[in-house]
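User: Last request for today: this protein with adenosine-5'-triphosphate, please.
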Amino acid sequence: MMDTLKSPEVILSVKNMVKDFPTGQSNSKKKMMRAVNEVSFDLCKGEALAIVGESGSGKSTGARILSRIYDKTAGEIMFKGQPLDEYVKEHGSLDYARQVQMIFQDPFGSLNPVHSIFHHIARPLLIHKRANKENLEKVVYGLLELVGLQPAVETAEKYPHELSGGQRQRVAIARALAVDPEVILADEPISMLDVSVRLGILNLMSDLKDKHGISFMYITHDIATARYFAEKTAVMYVGHMVEWGSSDNVTQTPQHPYTQLLLSAVPEAGKSGRRELDAKKGEIPLWKPDSKGCPFAMRCPRVLDKCSDSFPAITQIADDHFIRCFNI
Ligand SMILES: Nc1ncnc2c1ncn2[C@@H]1O[C@H](COP(=O)(O)OP(=O)(O)OP(=O)(O)O)[C@@H](O)[C@H]1O
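Assistant: Here's the final one, the structure of the complex with adenosine-5'-triphosphate:
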């Protein structure tokens, strides 16, 4: 008899998310730009979804909507099976903020230079009632140890400027963990760190995912680290998801010309040279609510006439592999 495969628990589900920003003083439709367009994905328990794309592709805007820093313009966000607005009404914004934590690119900017590391970790523990005066020290030291900051007592006494970039990012992760989150939205968490410590942070996040069941949305420019860290990858171009699915499918058999372009820039071990893709040096378009077509058309080496008329529908090309491109 076959085992019944349990489907993974979806924690965050996003459907057709849109975000427009005013480009000037006016809020009229003509003066808006569309930073995120028709973005849909599911984030499952204990899984990492990498959102990959160049600067300005809408990655951070998406994460900021999920952390409720920005409102969405349109679309649906479900958290644990309930529309996000309803969830927040029922459980409160503090509860959602506890469960969906964000860590940022600049670990120095996100820590307060006047406070000790102990204070940074103790504060969320007390606000969210995860510790009390009796067990506070033990919990703080335990979290510092969990993120590999040892000796914990010594580290707790330090101030942010006394730590390296990698150590500061570990403090930011410990602070996020202090409130026992379900989801961590990690916005370029390693891009400002020395190359030598990047892998350590990715491995720490992998451990938190695998051993503690935390789900990660991992925002990055670097498709190679997406492949290393995340089970799922979504490639974005100018606010649009153009290819997504399991990271293996997306990175080993990329079908969209933009994904192929990103991968052609990644040097591969054991292979001489790089795969060539003749991407035209087109302008990156400013997308507006009434813009039409595929945003990559101007740079696409395989552009067709119809690419400037409409954005292609979703095509499933394999189990857990999807693309929006006419040219497949
Ligand atoms: N608060 C804002 N007001 C107006 N426009 C914004 C705002 N935030 C982002 N944008 C615009 O939205 C688009 C997407 O920006 P976003 O920061 O989400 O991209 P990104 O892919 O995260 O880029 P990066 O990797 O550089 O952080 C950009 O054109 C940006 O200028």
